[in-house]
């Protein structure tokens, strides 16, 4: 790690593309929020997902985190339609078929209380008389739209998806649209990325 490298945590809002180039006039991009030259996102969040995005100009770190061999934990809070039962949660924990792929084991639990999150803009569309629930899901892989496809595979559509941590990095007090440089202790832990424990 050198002093020339920048490491940034960004709270990506809903409706923002995880890139700096604008493809359509209607979509916001990282350029609308981050005025730091030559940094790029490590991984991505879909435009309709929210939460923690790591950006850096450290090419070695980008390569390591993008390679499937260096699995690292990503934790999401996921609001779904209806209340998942024990069987559905167990299937998510052990792996489900999405397209032609079976997901790796994951940590999944039903949150007993709604997490304290900023309001989404625009808010989700509730269906009258259909309850919702929140899951905490920790994965060590990042296939395209994986969390949404996993919950759909067990019969519970995702309404809202927020990534709250990547390995040891957490959103903490950041609000949507805000970013900050990593702290000294966070920087010291960066070499441990890709060394997270595997799930049983």
Question: How are the elements arranged and paired?
Answer:
Elements: E1 7-12, E2 16-17, E3 28-29, E4 40-42, E5 50-56, H1 59-66, E6 74-81, H2 86-94, E7 97-98, E8 101-102, E9 107-110, E10 132-139, H3 146-153, E11 158-166, E12 169-170, E13 179-181, H4 184-189
Parallel strand pairs: 2-3, 5-11
Antiparallel strand pairs: 1-5, 1-13, 4-5, 6-10, 6-11, 7-8, 9-10, 11-12
User: Helix segment count?
Assistant: 4
Radius of gyration from CA coordinates: 17 Å
The figure for the number of domains is 2
Low-confidence stretches: none
Tell me, what's the shape? globular
What CATH calls the topology of the largest domain is: Alpha-Beta Plaits
Secondary structure class reads alpha+beta
The CATH homologous superfamily of the largest domain: Alpha-L RNA-binding motif
How does CATH name the architecture of the largest domain? 2-Layer Sandwich
The biggest beta sheet, please?
Answer: 9 strands, mixed
In N-to-C order, the SSE pattern is: EEEEEHEHEEEEHEEEH
Strand content: 25-35%
Q: What percent of residues adopt helix (DSSP H or I)?
A: 10-25%
| Count of extended strands | 13
Describe this structure in words.
- The chain is α+β, with helices and mostly antiparallel strands.
- The protein folds into 2 domains: 7-68 and 168-192, Alpha-Beta Plaits (2-Layer Sandwich); 74-165, Alpha-L RNA-binding motif (Alpha-Beta Plaits).
- It has helices at 59-66, 86-94, 146-153, 184-189, and strands at residues 7-12, 16-17, 28-29, 40-42, 50-56, 74-81, 97-98, 101-102, 107-110, 132-139, 158-166, 169-170, 179-181.
- Strands 1, 4, 5, 6, 9, 10, 11, 12 and 13 form a 9-stranded mixed sheet that branches. A two-stranded parallel sheet has the order 2-3. A two-stranded antiparallel ribbon has the order 7-8.
- The radius of gyration is 17 Å and the shape is globular.
- It starts with 6 loop residues before the first strand and ends in an 11-residue tail after the last helix.
- The mean pLDDT is 89.
């Amino acid at each position: 790690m050198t002093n020339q490298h920048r490491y940034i945590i960004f709270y990506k809002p809903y409706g923002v593309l995880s890139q700096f180039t604008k493809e359509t006039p209607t979509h916001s991009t990282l350029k609308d929020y981050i005025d730091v030259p030559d940094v790029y996102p490590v991984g991505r969040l879909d435009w309709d997902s929210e939460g923690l995005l790591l950006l850096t100009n450290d090419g070695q770190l980008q390569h390591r985190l993008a390679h499937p061999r260096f699995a690292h934990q990503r934790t999401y809070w996921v609001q779904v339609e209806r209340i998942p039962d024990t069987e559905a949660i167990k299937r998510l924990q052990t792996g489900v078929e999405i397209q032609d792929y079976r997901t790796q084991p994951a940590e999944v639990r039903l949150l007993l209380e709604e997490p304290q999150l900023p309001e989404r803009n625009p808010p989700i569309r509730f269906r009258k008389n259909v309850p919702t629930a929140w899951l905490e899901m920790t994965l060590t892989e990042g296939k395209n739209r994986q969390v949404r496809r996993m919950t759909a595979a067990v019969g519970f559509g995702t309404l809202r998806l927020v990534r709250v941590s990547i390995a040891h990095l957490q959103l903490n007090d950041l609000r949507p649209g805000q970013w900050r440089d990593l702290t000294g202790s966070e920087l010291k832990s960066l070499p441990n990325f890709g060394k997270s424990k595997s799930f049983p």
